[in-house]
Design brief:
Blueprint (H helix, E strand, L loop, with lengths): L7 H11 L6 H20 L10 E5 L5 E3 H16 L3 E6 L6 E2 L11 E9 L10 E9 L20 E9 L3 E6 L4 E7 L4 E6 L10 E3 L10 H11 L8 E2 L5 H11 L2 E4 L12 H14 L3 E3 L19 E4 L1 H16 L1
Parallel strand pairs: 3-5, 11-12, 11-13
Antiparallel strand pairs: 1-2, 3-4, 5-6, 6-7, 7-8, 8-9, 9-10, 13-15, 14-15
Helix pairs in contact: 2-3, 4-7
This protein binds 6-O-phosphono-alpha-D-fructofuranose.
Family: Belongs to the FBPase class 1 family.
Subcellular location: Cytoplasm
Protein name: Fructose-1,6-bisphosphatase class 1
């Protein structure tokens, strides 16, 4: 049983002993993410002071202006994961193609692949709003000893072995799951140690916060419009509260602690939704389900979607189980009209 204020290192060792069959590689993987997060946190926390908040001038595969901190975070996570002989491949939201990691002996012996959004919500950096790193871990499906292929990355979210995020906010937290619940660790920057501050995080079944960019209302599917009217009606426990930071990690983190639903639906601008299935939806869906919540595309479970492309997008409804199910009800009703 996890003990509050345990360090992340102690937690990983304790959990490693609980799963003797695992070779310890996953624990080492989480440890390397922990280290990279500390390095990135140091830069994020002084972004206003150092000229690295300006756009890098380049644009990523999504056509979005790359901020220098995006580029820095991407490089740090790739470098840390590559140097530790744990993963055989990395796919990043910031890179067009996946990266093959041969290992020191060029033998492709490592068995995990990592997919990540190195700095999500980066458009908020220069307005000093929390941003985050999101990561997702799978076992490779092609034979160990051969170079990874696209098949190793295009796995449905229900095959994730770990997922988590780092939120660089008023405090820096690492929140992750390996399929046995969700635990949150807060970094003490003075000594560079993460402490278990939020053991066994849970989405409340119900909530009264909805997070959506209502600026896109005119483009929303009818079911979303109907659900928003339900949220805003003055009856029973409603109207709900609208809270939208525009940084997925921050909105989901708040909703996990207070209860709520986050929705990024399809729209005329984003016919398949804006969020990326592999780097944002699947890891957040794994965390949500492990915390007793739910994540769908408005109709079907996000983690059952078989990806076809590395950077594909999906509509995303995620949070308190009863709120997601109510939204799905409105989506279904509108579809059958
Ligand atoms: P919009 C950030 O770019 C992001 O991917 C998520 O972090 C965030 O929730 C969403 O997009 C914000 O998108 O269109 O509301 O600005």
């Amino acid at each position: 049983m996890s003990k509050k204020h345990q360090t992340l290192g102690e937690f990983i060792i304790e959990n490693q002993q609980a799963f003797p069959y695992s070779s310890g590689e996953l624990s080492r993987l989480i440890n390397s993410i922990r280290l990279a997060a500390k390095v990135v946190n140091h830069e994020v926390n002084k972004a206003g002071l150092v000229d690295i908040t300006g756009a890098a001038g380049d644009t990523n595969v999504q056509g979005e202006q790359q901020q220098k901190l995006d580029v820095y975070a991407n490089q740090k996570f790739i470098q840390t994961l590559t140097n530790r002989e744990i993963v055989c491949g990395i796919a990043s939201e910031e890179n067009d193609e996946y990266i093959t990691i041969q290992g020191h002996n060029n033998d492709h012996k490592n068995k995990y692949v990592v997919l990540m959004d190195p700095l999500d919500g980066s458009s908020n950096i220069d307005v000093n709003v929390s941003v985050g790193t999101i990561f997702s871990v799978y076992r490779r499906v092609t034979p160990v000893g051969t170079p990874v292929t696209m098949e190793d990355f295009l796995q449905p979210g229900n095959l994730q072995v770990a997922a988590g995020y780092i939120i660089y906010g008023t405090s820096t937290m690492l929140v992750y799951t390996t399929g046995h619940g969700v635990n949150g660790f807060t970094l003490n920057p003075a000594i560079g140690t993460y402490y278990l501050s939020h053991p066994n995080m849970k989405f409340s079944e119900d909530g009264n916060i909805y997070s959506i960019n209502e600026g896109n209302y005119a483009q929303f599917p009818q079911g979303v419009k109907d659900y928003l009217k339900y949220c805003q009606a003055d009856e029973g426990d409603r109207p709900y509260t609208s809270r939208y930071i525009g940084s997925l990690v921050s909105d989901i983190h708040r909703n996990m602690i207070k209860g709520g639903i986050y929705i990024y639906p399809s729209s005329s601008k984003y016919p398949d939704g804006k969020l990326r299935l592999l780097y944002e939806c699947n890891p957040m869906a794994f965390l949500a389900e492990q915390a007793g919540g739910k994540a769908s595309d408005g109709f079907k479970r996000i983690m059952d979607i078989k990806p076809n492309e590395l950077h594909e997008r999906a509509p995303f409804f995620c949070g308190s189980k009863n709120m997601v199910e109510k939204a799905e009800e409105f989506m279904q009703k509108a579809k059958t009209k």
